[in-house]
Design goal:
By secondary structure, the chain is mainly α. It has helices spanning 3-41, 46-69, 77-93, 112-115, 117-140, 148-165. It contains 6 helices and no strands. The radius of gyration is 22 Å and the shape is globular.
Length: 169
């Protein structure tokens, strides 16, 4: 083999090694995140598991739209509208997924939910209304800036509920 071909082969091997290193740097944090979610829900059964999965789905929808808001992902109005519709459907189910006293680990729910049930239900209804507004805005919009206010308002409903009705981390 000539020196020139040998140099190319060595260079290609180094490049392949760098690509593997970059892939590993990107892959391992994602893998740990997925494992962390799996561990957070490990041991959950019945209604607690069902609601944890529902909340995980809402978080996934919010993260996807949030990536568009931040410019990390292209704005696709239909995807935002579909995400908002999914959140509406989830919001409608939330109260039935919290039968009184269902706080066994790994649940993050606190007893304040049942002590102030009316507020809890009001917040889930508010979430539904804000998600509907986000969906309508997305269907009528051609620019991400048009949905920012609705997305922010929806996010505030999540925060308000978590502040009062979820264990602090």
């Amino acid at each position: 083999m000539c020196a020139r071909c040998n140099a190319r082969t060595v260079s290609n091997r180094r490049l392949a090694g760098r690509k593997r290193s970059i892939r590993n740097v990107l892959l391992f944090p994602a893998l740990f995140a997925v494992c962390g979610l799996a561990l957070a829900h490990s041991g959950a059964e019945g209604i607690v598991k069902e609601r944890m999965e529902l909340m995980k789905s809402i978080a996934g929808q919010m993260k996807m739209v949030g990536r568009m808001i931040k410019g990390e992902k292209d704005f696709v109005a239909d995807q935002v509208a579909i995400a908002a519709e999914a959140i509406v459907g989830h919001a409608e189910k939330i109260p039935e997924l919290f039968p009184e006293g269902s706080i066994e680990p790994p649940s993050e729910a606190v007893t304040a939910i049942w002590q102030d049930w009316d507020k809890f239900v009001r917040l889930t209804n508010d979430m539904k209304l804000k998600a509907q507004a986000l969906g309508m805005s997305a269907r009528q919009s051609e620019d991400i800036k048009d949905i920012r206010p609705q997305f922010g308002a929806l996010g505030k409903t999540c925060s308000a509920c978590h502040e009062d009705f979820r264990k602090s981390e």
